[in-house]
TrEMBL record:
Keywords: ATP-binding, Cytoplasm, Kinase, Magnesium, Metal-binding, Nucleotide metabolism, Nucleotide-binding, Phosphoprotein, Transferase. One of its GO terms (cellular component) is cytoplasm. The keyword Nucleotide-binding applies. Major role in the synthesis of nucleoside triphosphates other than ATP. The ATP gamma phosphate is transferred to the NDP beta phosphate via a ping-pong mechanism, using a phosphorylated active-site intermediate. Its main location: cytoplasm. Residues 1-138 form the Nucleoside diphosphate kinase-like domain. The keyword DNA repair does not apply. Belongs to the NDK family. It catalyses: a 2'-deoxyribonucleoside 5'-diphosphate + ATP = a 2'-deoxyribonucleoside 5'-triphosphate + ADP; a ribonucleoside 5'-diphosphate + ATP = a ribonucleoside 5'-triphosphate + ADP. Its cofactor is Mg(2+). GO terms for molecular function: ATP binding; metal ion binding; nucleoside diphosphate kinase activity. This is Nucleoside diphosphate kinase. It comes from Melioribacter roseus (strain DSM 23840 / JCM 17771 / VKM B-2668 / P3M-2).
Length: 143
C-alpha cells in the first residue's frame, strides 16, 4: 500500500466539482486517509511550489492557488503515485487522455483542477506539508 497527495485546486472548489472528482477517485479504488479544506497563504503556496520558483508562470501559479480554498487529500492504494497520475491525466488538459479528470473538467494548463504527487519521495514531502502524523488515518485493513 502506498500514498499520494491530491489537491482539489481552487477552480475545482469554485465550480462545485468536489463531489464529482472525489467520486472518480474512489471509483478508481483509492482510499481517503486524510482530507481537509484550507486557504493557502502566499507563503504556504510558495513553499509547496518551491521547485517551480524559477518558472515564468510561478507568480500566476501562486495567485491561482491562493485565490480560494483548496482540498488536500491523502490517498492510499497500491502504486498510488503512478495510478493517480494516470487517473488525472496530463498537466495540460488539451493533451490529457479521454476519460481523465483533467480532460473532463480542467480549463487550461494552469487551472487544471487537481494536483497529484510525481514521485513517492515528493508524495511524502507534500503530505507532510498539509498533514501531521496524527491526522493520517490508518485506513489499510478497514474492510
Ligand atoms: P501541477 O502539476 O499540479 O503543479 C504545478 C502547476 O503549475 C501545474 O499543476 C499547473 O497548475 C501549473 N502550470 C504548469 N505548467 C504551467 C504553464 N506552462 N503555465 C501555467 N501554469 C502551469
Amino acid at each position: 500500500m502506498s500514498r499520494t497527495l491530491a489537491i482539489l485546486k481552487p477552480d475545482c472548489v469554485r465550480k462545485e466539482l468536489i463531489g464529482k472528482v472525489i467520486g472518480h477517485i474512489q471509483s478508481a479504488g483509492f482510499k481517503i486517509a486524510a482530507m481537509k479544506m484550507v486557504k493557502l497563504t502566499p507563503d504556504a503556496a510558495k513553499g509547496f511550489y518551491e521547485v517551480h520558483k524559477e518558472r515564468p508562470f510561478f507568480h500566476e501559479l501562486i495567485s491561482y492557488m491562493t485565490s480560494g480554498p483548496c482540498v488536500p487529500i491523502v490517498l492510499e492504494k497500491d502504486n498510488a503515485v503512478e495510478d493517480f497520475r494516470k487517473l488525472i491525466g496530463a498537466t495540460d488538459p488539451a493533451k490529457a487522455e479521454e476519460g481523465t479528470i483533467r480532460k473532463m473538467y480542467a480549463e487550461n494548463i494552469q487551472e487544471n483542477i487537481i494536483h497529484g504527487s510525481d514521485s513517492d519521495e515528493n508524495a511524502a514531502k507534500e503530505i507532510a506539508h498539509f498533514f501531521s502524523r496524527k491526522e493520517l488515518l490508518e485506513i489499510n485493513g478497514w474492510e
